[in-house]
Design a protein that fits this description.
Strand order of the largest sheet of chain A: 1-2
CATH class of the largest domain in chain B: Alpha Beta
Distance between the termini of chain A: 38 Å
Number of strands of chain B: 16
Shape of chain A: globular
Strand content of chain B: 15-25%
Structural class of chain B: alpha/beta
Number of strands of chain A: 2
Strand order of the largest sheet of chain B: 2-3-1-4-5-6
Radius of gyration of chain B: 23 Å
Shape of chain B: globular
Largest sheet of chain B: 6 strands, mixed
Structural class of chain A: mainly alpha
Oligomer: heterodimer
Largest sheet of chain A: 2 strands, antiparallel
Strand content of chain A: under 5%
CATH architecture of the largest domain in chain B: 3-Layer(aba) Sandwich
Largest interface: A-B, 46 and 37 residues
Chain lengths: ~290, ~400
C-alpha cells in the first residue's frame, strides 16, 4: 500500500479520535469526580448542535460567525449543565447510584421531547465554513480540511483540561476527590464547588462536541443516541474516570475505524469493538488503570 | 310475574348480546375504517407527514364520506420498528376492526405488516417503503405497493447514467436493504446497457455513519469518473454534506437517487452541491401540468408546506381506495382488490395504474441535476427528464422468478 495513503488514513483516524475525546473527556471527568454515570451526555451533545444551528442563524454564515457560534453553543450547554447540577443532581449526591442513573436517563427523555417541541422533528443542517471546505492535496493523497476542526478542538481540550487539572486549585481538589473523597472532606474542603465545576466542564465539552460535529451530521433529536455508545466504550477502555486513558482509547478507536474502512470496509464497525474486547481481556479496568 | 332463574339467564344473555351487537354492526355498516401505521416521530417524519397529508387531502376532497359511509382513519406511530408496526397492525385489525391497512416508511415494517395482512386477508397499501420485495418476491393478493420500488428507481438512474460518457464507476451506500437493493438494480441495468462500464470499487457504511471522511478519501484515491451513492433516508443529508465540503462533487460525477428530492435539498440548503444527478417520483414544481399545480395549491392551503415526494403517494392511495369502493358499491374487500387490479387514475404525476399481476403502481420517475437557482431557498432539479413507468416496470416473468413460480 502507498505510504501517503497510510499517512492520510492515520491523520483521519487521529482527528476522528480527537473528536471522540472531546466527548469522552467530559463524560469521564464527571464519572471520576462525581461518580455519576451521566446518560444525558449524549443529550447535551445534541443540544450543542441545536444551539449551534440557532446561533449560526443569528450570526450568519462566515467563518468567524461559525467559531463564535460554536463557543456560544458550548457555553449555553454549560449553563444548562449548571442548572441541572444545582437544581437536580446536587440533591442526589451520596444517594444510591440507581437514583442518579434514573435521573440522568429521565433527562435524556425530557431533552429529546423538548427539542422536538422547540425545534420540531425536521432534519437541520449547518453549512461548513469556507475556511474548512475542500481538501488538502498532500503527497498525492487527499485530506479534508474539516478534520482540522476536530484536531484543533481535541488538542485545545487536552491543553485546557491539563491546565485545569494540574494548575488550578479546583482541579487539584477534583483529582483528590476522584482518588479519595472522604479524605478531602475530612480535611474540611467543600467538595460541592468541585462537583459543580466538573459537571459544567463536562457539559461545555459535550456542547462543543455537538457544535463542531454539526456541519457534518444530521441535526436531529436522536443524534446523540449512536455516538454515546461509542463514547461510553472509549471511557471504559480508557479506564473509568481516567482522562488520559480516554485520550489514548479515543485515538485508538479513531485510527482503527479509519483503517477499518480502508482495509475491510464491510466490517469497519467491528474494529473498535474488537479492540475494546482485547483491551478489556488484558486489562479489565482499562488502559491506564493501576 | 315470576322470573325463573332460567328466564333471567336467557334474557340477560340476550341483553348482553344486544349490547355488544350495535358496535360491531356500526363498524361494519356506517363506517369505513382505515388503519394507518407509520413513523410519526423523529427525522423520518419529513417523509411520513408528506404521505399522511396527501392521504388527508384526498379524503377531505370527498368530505371523508363514500357510499354514504363515514371514513374513519386511525393513525398509529410505529417508530420505524417492524415489531411495533406488526403489533399496531394486529391491534387495528383485531380491536378496531379496520377494513384496510396503510403504511409504512420502513421496508422491514412494510414486509412484516404485509405478511400479517395476507394472513388476515386485509388489503394493505405500502405507500413509502421502496424494497422491491414488497411487490416482488414477497408480494401477494393483499398487498399494494404505491411507491416506485428499488428495481424501478435503480433502473431509472441507470438509464440516465447510460446516456453520459462516464465509464469507471464507484459504488458506495448504506449497508441495509434499501442501499443494496437500489445499488444492485443500478449496476445490473447500467452494465446491461453499457458494456464499456466498469465498477472499480464498492464500499458500504453503516446506517447513521457519523464520519464519511475515510470513505470519501477512498473514492478520491481511486479517481472514478462517476460515483453511484445508494444512501438511505438517514444518511442522505450528512453524506451530501461531505460530498460538498470535501469537494468530491467537483472531481467526479455523482448519482444519488433521492438527492434532488425537496426534503433533501431543503434540509441541506446552501450545503447542497450543484450538479448531483438524482431522481424522484415527484417534484412539487414538476411536472408542470395544471393537475400538479392544483394539487400543490390545495396541499399548500391545507398544510402550509410544499408537498414532498411521498405526498402524491398518500393522495394516490386515498383516491385508488375511494374509486374502488365506489366501483364495487360496498366494502367487500375481495371485490375491491379485484377492482384495484389494473385500475388507473389521474394523479399529480399524470395517469398511473396498478399492475394487475403484482399490485405495483406503475408511475414515472423524473431524473434531473441539482441546481441552486435562487427561486427557492433550496436547490431544485434542473434539466429534468421523464422516464415513463412502462419503461421502468420489471417484466412479470422476472417477478414470477423472484417468487419461485
Amino acid at each position: 500500500m502507498d505510504l501517503s495513503i497510510v499517512a492520510s488514513y492515520l491523520l483521519i483516524g487521529i482527528s476522528r479520535g480527537m473528536f471522540y475525546f472531546v466527548l469522552a473527556a467530559g463524560l469521564t471527568l464527571i464519572l471520576g469526580v462525581l461518580k455519576i454515570i451521566n446518560f444525558a451526555h449524549g443529550s447535551l451533545y445534541m443540544l450543542g448542535a441545536f444551539f449551534m444551528y440557532t446561533f449560526i442563524g443569528i450570526a450568519g454564515q462566515g467563518t468567524g460567525a461559525f467559531f463564535l457560534s460554536a463557543v456560544m453553543a458550548a457555553i449555553t450547554v454549560g449553563f444548562i449543565s449548571f442548572i441541572i447540577e444545582q437544581m437536580l443532581l446536587k440533591h442526589l449526591y451520596g444517594k444510591e447510584h440507581l437514583m442518579q442513573m434514573l435521573l440522568t436517563y429521565s433527562l435524556v427523555l425530557i431533552f429529546g421531547d423538548s427539542v422536538e417541541m422547540i425545534w420540531g422533528t425536521d432534519y437541520y443542517t449547518v453549512a461548513m465554513p469556507k475556511l474548512l471546505s475542500g481538501s488538502y492535496h498532500i503527497f498525492g493523497t487527499y485530506i479534508s480540511k474539516f478534520y482540522l476542526l476536530f484536531l484543533i478542538s481535541g488538542l485545545l481540550t487536552v491543553v485546557l483540561l491539563w491546565l485545569y487539572m494540574y494548575k488550578t486549585k479546583l482541579g487539584k481538589i477534583a483529582r483528590a476527590v476522584a482518588t479519595n473523597r472522604s479524605m478531602v472532606e475530612a480535611l474540611g474542603i467543600n467538595a460541592d464547588a468541585t462537583f459543580m465545576y466538573a459537571f459544567v466542564i463536562g457539559g461545555v465539552l459535550a456542547g462543543l462536541g455537538g457544535a463542531i460535529a454539526s456541519p457534518a451530521v444530521n441535526i436531529t433529536s436522536q443524534m446523540g443516541d449512536s455516538i454515546i455508545i461509542k463514547v461510553f466504550l472509549v471511557v471504559i477502555v480508557g479506564g473509568l474516570g481516567n482522562i488520559w486513558g480516554s485520550l489514548i482509547a479515543a485515538i485508538i478507536f479513531g485510527i482503527s475505524e479509519s483503517f477499518g474502512v480502508l482495509i475491510f470496509p464491510r466490517f469497519e464497525i467491528a474494529f473498535p469493538f474488537a479492540i475494546a474486547a482485547i483491551v478489556l481481556i488484558l486489562k479489565p479496568r482499562g488502559i491506564l488503570s493501576k | 310475574m315470576k322470573l325463573s332463574r332460567r328466564k333471567f339467564l336467557k334474557s340477560g344473555a340476550a341483553g348482553i348480546a344486544m349490547l355488544s351487537l350495535p358496535s360491531v354492526a356500526s363498524a361494519d355498516a356506517d363506517k369505513i375504517k382505515i388503519g394507518v401505521i407509520d413513523t410519526y416521530s423523529g427525522p423520518a417524519t419529513i417523509y411520513t407527514y408528506g404521505a399522511r397529508n396527501g392521504f388527508k387531502l384526498a379524503l377531505s376532497q370527498i368530505g371523508y364520506n363514500v357510499l354514504g359511509k363515514k371514513i374513519e382513519v386511525l393513525y398509529r406511530n410505529s417508530r420505524y420498528r417492524p415489531n411495533i408496526a406488526l403489533k399496531m397492525a394486529k391491534e387495528l385489525v383485531l380491536s378496531e376492526k379496520v377494513d384496510f391497512l396503510v403504511g409504512t416508511i420502513s421496508s422491514a415494517a412494510a414486509l412484516a405488516v404485509s405478511a400479517y395482512a395476507k394472513s388476515v386477508k386485509i388489503p394493505f397499501f405500502d405507500w413509502i417503503a421502496m424494497s422491491g420485495k414488497i411487490s416482488g418476491a414477497d408480494g401477494h393478493r393483499y398487498v399494494f405497493q404505491i411507491e416506485v420500488n428499488t428495481d424501478m428507481s435503480g433502473k431509472a438512474m441507470a438509464l440516465a447514467a447510460a446516456k453520459e460518457k462516464y465509464k469507471r464507476y464507484y459504488i458506495i451506500g448504506s449497508d441495509y436493504e434499501y442501499g443494496h437493493a437500489i445499488a444492485e438494480s443500478f449496476e445490473k441495468n447500467l452494465t446491461g446497457l453499457r458494456k464499456d462500464v466498469e465498477i472499480i470499487g464498492k464500499s458500504w457504511f453503516r446506517v447513521g455513519e457519523p464520519d464519511f471522511g475515510p470513505y470519501i478519501n477512498a473514492i478520491l484515491i481511486k479517481k472514478p469518473d462517476a460515483v453511484y451513492a445508494a444512501t438511505g433516508g438517514r444518511d442522505m443529508v450528512p453524506f451530501l454534506k461531505y460530498v460538498n465540503f470535501t469537494g468530491l462533487a467537483k472531481k467526479t460525477a455523482i448519482f444519488d437517487y433521492t438527492a434532488t428530492d425537496t426534503a433533501t435539498t431543503e434540509a441541506l440548503g446552501d450545503s447542497m452541491p450543484d450538479g448531483i444527478y438524482g431522481g424522484s417520483p415527484y417534484y412539487f414544481y414538476y411536472p408542470k401540468t395544471n393537475q400538479n399545480k392544483m394539487f400543490v395549491q390545495s396541499y399548500k392551503e391545507q398544510f402550509k408546506k410544499w408537498p414532498v415526494f411521498t405526498s402524491p403517494n398518500g393522495y394516490i392511495t386515498g383516491n385508488l381506495l375511494i374509486k374502488a369502493i365506489k366501483l364495487v358499491g360496498a366494502v367487500d374487500k375481495e371485490r375491491i382488490i379485484n377492482a384495484l387490479e389494473g385500475m388507473s387514475i389521474s394523479s399529480p404525476v399524470g395517469k398511473v395504474y396498478v399492475r394487475a399481476y403484482d399490485h405495483q403502481l406503475i408511475a414515472p420517475v423524473y431524473v434531473g441535476r441539482t441546481k441552486k437557482t435562487g427561486k427557492y431557498p433550496f436547490a431544485t432539479a434542473a434539466d429534468i427528464v421523464t422516464i415513463p413507468g412502462d419503461e421502468l416496470k420489471i417484466p412479470i416473468s422476472e417477478v414470477k422468478r423472484e417468487r419461485g413460480l
